[in-house]
Structure formats: structure tokens, C-alpha cells
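Q: Second attempt. The first request was missing the SMILES, so the protein and flavin mononucleotide are both included now.
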Amino acid sequence: MLEYRFSIAPMMDWTDRHCRVFHRLMTRRARLYTEMLTTGAIIHGDRARLLGFDASEHPVALQLGGSNPGDLATSAKIGEDFGYDEINLNVGCPSDRVQDGRFGACLMAEPELVAEGVAAMKRAVSIPVTVKCRIGIDDQDPEVALDMLARRVIAAGSDALVVHARKAWLNGLSPKENRDIPPLDYDRVYRLKAALPDMPIIINGGITSIAEATRHLKHVDGVMLGRAAYQEPWRLLSADLELFGEPAPHAAMKDVFGAMMPYIEDQLARGIRLHSMTRHFVGAFHGVPGARAFRRHLAENGVKPGAGVNVLRDAIALVDDRAPASMAA
Ligand SMILES: Cc1cc2nc3c(=O)[nH]c(=O)nc-3n(C[C@H](O)[C@H](O)[C@H](O)COP(=O)(O)O)c2cc1C
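A: Got both inputs this time. The predicted holo structure:
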């Protein structure tokens, strides 16, 4: 179950391939997740663009949005053929657009359909298939709804279950509000783990530091960090040590950027704009002199047409060398 111990959540518009390469340079151990991709996009879209990723990203999971078992199976197989290490099904995303397509959190009300999807994917691929869900939606009783979903997907062969430890309220809240307003209930997830000792259960939602992650690991098999990992990526520099007893790939954020330069140069040469990559670096430095100047320099210059790697180099030079670039989580 060690492979599920620590992961970085799927986040649309945030955990794209550039972001994942950046995260990987701070932690070798985190399991990384793509943004959610719908089965429709995968089956009909530009696969190389949507699914391509860098070899350094492993282990990396592809998150699918969909509910048609045949389409899920087809998409999972395409993902496996691209080299993904896991297929994860989104049963937690509350946006309207997603409800229309009958996938995401509304599937909490259709455990049988989710189970059919999981079973179809399991038949199609040999990599792990997992599910990411909420504890319930709307007026569901989480004691019943989560248990029902978990037992069905386990029976269908799911290899792990990620639980965002709050309900989604599908009427009235925006997706953003649905990540903050419904109250967190970690105990509900702990009880699920106690009831299903053999199933890897990963807890997610509102976890703000690696130290906090460590505390959850007394109750569950894994912790998934979303916003804290993205907005304060420097926290990831302590993840391997704190959670696995292994040294971080790089001691400090400046070393991370040093290691990322060849990737950035390669992507620029392929026509990717600098800003597509540097937009993920906004929270890189924290509590060190020059952090604000770094952000400002990138914001002002990174978006200019033809911006090159020197913009990033100059921004990094504004950060004080001698100060510790990472603060312990
Ligand atoms: C910008 C953003 C985009 C997200 N996109 C997805 C997504 O594509 N799939 C998904 O399952 N969850 C998505 N989420 C939810 C996160 O995966 C996670 O469950 C949620 O943010 C709670 O974890 P946190 O409190 O650690 O951020 C998104 C969250 C954010 C902030």
C-alpha cells in the first residue's frame, strides 16, 4: 500500500504536465494525477496533446470523467497504452457541466453504474483502477452512501479509493464553494478504513501541510494533497523525508529550478510558451527575501511574447541565495 501513501490531487487547469514535472522534482514518491479528462475528449480529441507526458512524471495516474462503461474501458486502455500507471475515475467533481454529462459527484447516487464502469475498466487494463469520490452528495446519509459506493467499487475490482472528506452539494454551490463549504468529516473516512481493512483508503480535503498528512496516516493508507501542494509547492520538499524517510530529490527550490531548466528549454523549443510553465511557480518561494520580487518578475515578463528562459533565471536571481529556500512544512 506504500504506493498510495502520498499523492497530489487531480486539479483541472493546474496539474498539467508542466506542473507535474515541477512537482516531481520536489518529491520522488508522490503519486501524481492528471487533470480530469472526459472519455469524450480522449476518444475523439487530440490524444497526443491531451495525454502526452514526460517520462520523469512516473508514477502518474490518468483521471477520467465519464460514466458509460464502454467509453471508460476504451479510454482506460488508451491511457494504459500511453504509459499511465493508474486509471482513476472521478466521482467527486460537482460542476454543472459535469452533471449534465452524468459524471463526477452526481455518480455518488449511482453506485451500480460506477461499479459497472470500474469492472469494464478492470477488464480492459492491467494497471490499477481507482476511484475518487466524496462522502456523499446533497441529502445522502454519508454513513450509507459512502459505504455503498465503496463496497460496490471494491466488488468490481477497484484497487484503491480516494475520499474527499466532505459532501458535494450539487444544488446551489459553485465548484469552488463545494471545496470549502460542506464541512470536512475525516472521522467518516477513518471509519471507512476501519470497516475495510484490506482496501487502500486515501484521505483528501483541507490537509494543509506534510505534518498534518503524517497524522492522517495513523488512520488511513494514504493522503492526497490538492491546493496546499499547488499553492505552496515548497512544502513538497519535505514530503519524501517526512513520509518515507528518504531524502528529497533536491535540497532547495533553486536546485529544483536548476534541474527543471533543460525541460523548460526543451518545451520552449517545441513552441510551448514560457508562461504555460512558469504560471505554476507562483508559490515556489515562501518566507524568503525576494519571493515577492520573483513573483512580480514572472508576472510582468513571463507573459511577453517570445519570453525565454532568461526571464525565469532573472526572477530566481532576485531570491536571496543565503536564506533557506524551503521552510519545513
Ligand atoms: C483548481 C482545482 C481543480 C480541480 N479539479 C479536479 C479534477 O479535475 N478532478 C478531481 O477529482 N478533483 C478536482 N479538484 C478537487 C481536488 O482534487 C481535491 O479533491 C480538492 O481540492 C480537496 O483537496 P484539497 O483541500 O487538498 O485541495 C480540483 C480542485 C481545484 C482547487
